[in-house]
Hints:
The complex is a heterodimer. Helix content of chain A is 21%, strand content 32%. By secondary structure, chain A is α+β, with helices and mostly antiparallel strands. Chain A has 3 domains: 4-236, P-loop containing nucleotide triphosphate hydrolases (Rossmann fold, 3-Layer(aba) Sandwich); 246-348, Elongation Factor Tu (Ef-tu), domain 3 (Beta Barrel), CATH 2.40.30; 356-456, Elongation Factor Tu (Ef-tu), domain 3 (Beta Barrel). The longest helix of chain A has 18 residues, at 173-190. The radius of gyration of chain A is 25 Å and the shape is globular. By secondary structure, chain B is α/β, with parallel strands linked by helices. Chain B folds into 2 domains: 36-217 and 319-324, HUPs (Rossmann fold), CATH 3.40.50.620; 232-312, no CATH class. Chain B has helices at residues 9-20, 36-54, 66-79, 98-111, 120-125, 142-151, 217-227, 290-299, 304-308, 318-324; strands at 58-61, 88-92, 115-119, 156-158, 175-178, 206-209, 238-245, 248-251, 265-270, 281-284. In chain B, helix 3 (66-79) links the parallel strand 1 (58-61) and strand 2. In chain B, helix 2 crosses helix 3 (66-79) and helix 7 packs antiparallel against helix 8. Chain B starts with 8 loop residues before the first helix and ends with a helix. The interface between A and B is large, with 109 and 96 residues. Magnesium ion (MG) is lined by residues 30-31, 75, 90, 111 of chain A.
Amino acid sequence: MSTETSLLETGLRESTLFRFATAGSVDDGKSTLVGRLLHDSKAILADQLDAVARTSADRGFGGAGATGSQAIDLALLTDGLRAEREQGITIDVAYRYFATDRRSFILADCPGHVQYTKNTVTGASTADAVVVLIDARKGVLEQTRRHLSVLQLLRVAHVIVAVNKIDLVDFSESVFREIETDVQKVARELGLGADGIADLVVIPVSALDGDNVVDRSDRTPWYSGPALLEVLETLPAADELESHLESFRFPVQLVIRPQGALAPDAIASGLDVGAYRDYRAYAGQITEGTVKLGDKVTVLSPGHEPRITTVTGIDFAGSELAEATAPQSVAIRLADEIDIARGDTIAAAGTVRESSADLYAALCWLSPKPLREGAKVLVKHGTRTVQALVRNVTGKLDLATFNVEAASSLELNDIGNAQLRLAAPLPLENYLHHRRTGAFLVIDPVDGNTLAAGLVKDHPGDHEDERYVI
Amino acid sequence: MSTQITNEDTELSVLEKDLAETPVAAQRVAAERLSSLDTLESEAIHIIREVVAEFEKPALLFSGGKDSVVMLHLATKAFWPGKVPFPVLHVDTGHNFPEVIDFRDRTVERLGLKLVVGSVQEFIDRGELAERADGTRNPLQTVPLLDAIQRNKFDAVFGGGRRDEDKARAKERILSLRDEFGQWDPRNQRPELWNLYNGRHTVGQHVRAFPISNWTELDVWRYIEREGIELPGLYYAHEREVYERDGMWRAVGEVSMPKPDEEVLTKLVRYRTVGDMSCTGAVLSDARTVADVVVEVAASTLTERGATRADDRISEAAMEDRKKDGYF
Ligand SMILES: Nc1nc2c(ncn2[C@@H]2O[C@H](COP(=O)(O)OP(=O)(O)O)[C@@H](O)[C@H]2O)c(=O)[nH]1
Ligand SMILES: [Mg+2]
């Protein structure tokens, strides 16, 4: 087969996808680390390197004695906007791609200075892992605590702390161990890694020279752990963890009901027009869990009692699947002719609770326009957008101590708790257990801008065992 | 599993017979970890369906180039067995490879789509655009593109842009808001969280949607191979009359004639992108099949734009500047 030949010749296996982000303070070396990963995994192609070398030389980088990748400013590989190159800073999250023979990586390089919460929250929301950089000369700073807090709040599956610039502390083991101990202490305070969801790895690296980035370094003989890339290649992706959950969830994006309008190419390749005249299926992407033919499911729709039915078909572009798993996009057929529309949710029967119009949540405020009590906003959850009233702000997180302080408004980069009243009930779930169906956006109804990232919390006084009834 | 569960019994049994004939290989085993291509495909289909569900009038930019062909293929999968529910839009530079236009028309016909064409030539003829000194028409596409968007009231336009193509694209959102003038404001982008895409816009604004943002060139080629997607023939090695200019092999054609001192040679070449024939270069290659191309791309040391697009070399920020003005 041609596929096999070509994969063999290129040394490419069927790889899996892994998404990770970087976080850290300004100048900790995030961009350099990303550049190093791209460079050493040969993801940077010759003409990009040319352009970067030219710009590096213009900016006086390298100089006498600099060799190879040291002669270029690796940060230029990710700092793609003109203003970033001119000012030597990273403004916006940049996405980069590289592959090893095990995995394809998508990495989000998140800037650390202004709006670090906004960028870290954005990068972390889709990440399987986040690499937090610490400058070995500075150790754990307040900023580091804040980053770790955000990662804990967002339930990032894997946190990797890279103690960078280890070359500048003479590859000292004692410096590394001290920082490692501090990191573990902060993690314990935050409960990071405590519940088995997240795990934590600490690695000494030099992004500039490449120590422990792709290969283990012989300049840190006292460190016996894996290099950063080895860790990234072997951690399970979040989808992989979530596909094993029993709680199948499927927000309906749209109903596929072609009636007369069948695809001419499908007809040309033998589709039985008569059989598909009354075809009706619900299209969406599985957010967690697995669905099998014959499974009993609950359909949650606003204005309806929850309805239980059976899965009779899982279609994907002409092939019928016996089962499908997160994050597959499929179309599901159901036994009973019930009225289902965009915004409804199909879920494994017995694993959901009724929709609710009372929303308790943590909000990561991402807009310069502050949140005030009494504000009218839009809440986008899954495939539904509803109006909402901000009833009250119940507190604000001090990211450095993780204590909740009293507050009545939230400003840019604040994280706080709030209570909202929704114009229509939503199938809300606790973000702690459901990363997709527990997440939502707060949108400004006036200009349409995204104001906040929301994480659903349980209602105060809710009991775990009462939660799953339908 | 139960098979008699609906009141559409007879029709369902026909349907199931049909499905039973699907080759086993096509019925993927879900329990296994999805491959990176499966994950990227799922993500793209999710985005395409979101845009169709949330916008009034989407269109898909279709040039006959491989990225747009892959997008259209994803759209057919997203709505199967229904028709792709939006028209395709081609911004025609007038400097075309004839086989690409032929491919475009056949594809539109095969899928029963409506084709909207924005013509650079017409704008030049009406004096609303001036031919550039270097003869290149790729940068001239912005005006006809925005005109077609406005005239047809498209509120969402699918583009085949990938973040690995260019440093400015690496920073662009999957749903990217454009103002009344079609401009992109890179410093004022909405944060994009989880898989929740915010496409809200006011009248006059529109959104560019990039479903294959997270694909690399190699992903695109491996997907073309896996899915058996047809492309215009010039993506594969063929003999062609070419001459060398600025380190690129250019095809001899009506709009790309060699200067007297440029020697015309017959070479085995292929194209990595299709665009304005006058400024798109060919690469020397003997990759005659898609499998050969996958091998070549994997081993390649030049990004596709660097190798073949003269207009992107003009400055480091060339793409960012054009995007700000409303380019793809
Ligand atoms: N000596 C040394 N310098 C480093 C290392 N990593 C980064 N740097 C330097 O630290 C500065 C800030 O790096 P940059 O990647 O721009 O930091 P960012 O703001 O976190 O993206 C630059 O001058 C880098 O060359 C390292 O491991 N060792
Ligand atoms: Mg940086």
